[in-house]
Known about the structure:
The first copy, chain A, is an alpha/beta fold. Helices cover 42% and strands 21% of the residues of chain A. Chain A folds into two domains: 3-226, Aldehyde Dehydrogenase, Chain A, domain 1 (3-Layer(aba) Sandwich); 231-377, Aldehyde Dehydrogenase, Chain A, domain 2 (3-Layer(aba) Sandwich), CATH 3.40.309.10. In chain A, strands 10-9-11-8-7-12-13 form a seven-stranded parallel sheet, with helices on both faces. The first copy, chain A, has a four-stranded parallel sheet with strand order 5-4-3-6, sandwiched between helices. A three-stranded antiparallel sheet of chain A has the order 1-2-16, with no helix packed on it.
Amino acid sequence: MATTTRTVAEVCAQARDASRVLATLPSGARDAALHAMADALEQRSAEILEANARDMEAGRESGLNAALLDRLQLDEGRLAGIAGDVRTIAALPDPVGETVEGHRLPNGLDVRRVRVPLGVVAVVYEARPNVTIDCSALCLKSGNAIVLRGSSTAAHSNSVLARVAQEAVVRTGLPEGSISIVAGGDRDELRQLATQDGLVDLVIPRGGEGLKAALKEHATVPVMYAAAGNCHVYVDASADLDDAVAIAVNAKVQRPGVCNAAETLLVHADATAEFLPRALGELRESGVELRVDGRARLLAGDLADSLAEASEEDWETEYLALILAVKVVDSVDEAIEHVNRYSSGHSEAIVTGSTDAAQAFTGGVDAASVYVNASTRFTDGGVFGMGAEIGNSTQKLHARGPIGIRELTTFKYVIEGSGQVRE
Amino acid sequence: MATTTRTVAEVCAQARDASRVLATLPSGARDAALHAMADALEQRSAEILEANARDMEAGRESGLNAALLDRLQLDEGRLAGIAGDVRTIAALPDPVGETVEGHRLPNGLDVRRVRVPLGVVAVVYEARPNVTIDCSALCLKSGNAIVLRGSSTAAHSNSVLARVAQEAVVRTGLPEGSISIVAGGDRDELRQLATQDGLVDLVIPRGGEGLKAALKEHATVPVMYAAAGNCHVYVDASADLDDAVAIAVNAKVQRPGVCNAAETLLVHADATAEFLPRALGELRESGVELRVDGRARLLAGDLADSLAEASEEDWETEYLALILAVKVVDSVDEAIEHVNRYSSGHSEAIVTGSTDAAQAFTGGVDAASVYVNASTRFTDGGVFGMGAEIGNSTQKLHARGPIGIRELTTFKYVIEGSGQVRE
């Protein structure tokens, strides 16, 4: 763990060696290591909290705002929560070794596609120190070595957390290099990490657009981006209005700061008269600022005068706040077209009583998760039964939607024969 | 198809629009389009061969070598072969719409993971004009729009082939923009194509290292690289010697110029005495130049004096020719270590009678295809039952091994509910 004296390439080379061993360990060995990691977090809490206090003090001195300080802060309760999450991950079914499919060829060769770890996963992240442990647990569970690179704001916390985790797993027999951390805070280090072709198999950024842009520019190893969520709820002509109101309100209000919250409400013209006054009223009561197109305003009843006018920018914006854009459309096709034009491809919902409209929407909308008669807020690895997630992918290759432990694996073809040669 | 007057971005935007329609067409419509394409290739052969003759003439004038001219040339027989391949692709099962998995959540939501097209696939390639049609057929079969960018050497052939194909599929009702071609030959055009974020979902290079390097430098959209094959055959202590000799010879000799041919033979020290003289003899008789380490030379019997000495560079080299490096190792672990150090991760084989050694090798070797007691030469989409392949991936994300029509798809989660909202 003496990373200050090692280059990024050296850290990654040791992680590569560790990954060769991890790939062949049985699940029991990896799960035991995760339990040791969880126990160590609790046993060594004083050390961890002392390091965290130093980050908190530096954060306060440098004028970090209250929200960022809250994300940075650890206490006994939060540490116990993190340890509990590690035990939850340990209890998940092992994704490694599963035969995904297999068949016998006419020449007698048995071809099996078998799930295996990716190898070395690098995670680059911002201020939350819990990411250090969450991602380490997810990577070890899926048989990968992890190289961490956090932000300088949480440097003391991350460094101690990674050391505690690494020491715990090594004591159970996992190789040195299973969990490594590079110092963090230096852009050149990020560039180095993202160009370790042959040593790093995947980089996962967990942070804002600046971090992603830096990776887009420099990375030569594969990167799995978790993009923003500009999500829509479309209320069709035949929608059950109670469901429609409940879903629109839930998708916007239940937790507005997350990527699967709705940002735009689309309403079929035939549903507006009954739906709009009621829905807009409930949204307003929940504290939602509404930005509507001209047609929606005409049907908003008493509220009309208090509504802002939606602009092109509103259709494009992921507010992550109690703000909702509202637009009236004349058909499910127009709704699909609007969604495909502005959506970030995260989570999209239709509320409808028509199977034709439902099929048109699920077939036509190009997004990771498409809902019929349910809130967009369900897109989550935990909810989907994947146990835990490392992020949510809006890209199409490899992983789309929640990125769980299965998405941290690849596969190999294992072909068994009895001397076959090619004619 | 008037591509000369359109920018790359305009071509890709039209392809994006076409992809929205293609994604919702039933398989019958796409298969009918493929049959129309195949028919048109035969019906309009005169036009195609005339364009090809112009490329051939220009190629001869510019001093293209015989091998490249052969790859460039079309005739009635080759065209019929290409048309036949299109019909074969049409007959494959549709990969689109398959429910990969599905389950009901405790809250009653039905979550299904459904296979869908990627959207717009760009294929950049070098002199073979048949790629124009093969890739168009594979992309349409998997519900994708394709944007082609061939080399200037085959510009006339590619342009006419793409036009013939596009006109044929549009006549059956597929959208304009299903098949597009950009002029080719201009590096800036490649850069533009590889940076159409939001319009192009995937770029597939089919060409040499220069093309891949250019994409590595410029691409911001995902790229699926088909890398080289530095493949090994390892003959274990307990190998059946007849099988071992047959497999070593087949993997090297049967078609040395392809990526799944073996480049290095590793031999367990305990197998050398019986195996090496016989294997090296047969390899020599097949015209193979042998480059051996010191221990192999000692055991090569009469051949010893005529063998070249293997250097570090030999372990790293994909010869793609009748040359084989030979090395003696002391254990399956040493073989695995050598393979993981030098392999390009394509196809690796062990010949052994030991289940322990087989398991160690298949578990420990990090490659797309790992063989037990069979030649490396079987790695092929057609052989593996995938119908056809667009290349062979040695990367680990999304597609590993043969890239067939399934690998040209992604999936979406379709979630059906009855009004569920998140608590």
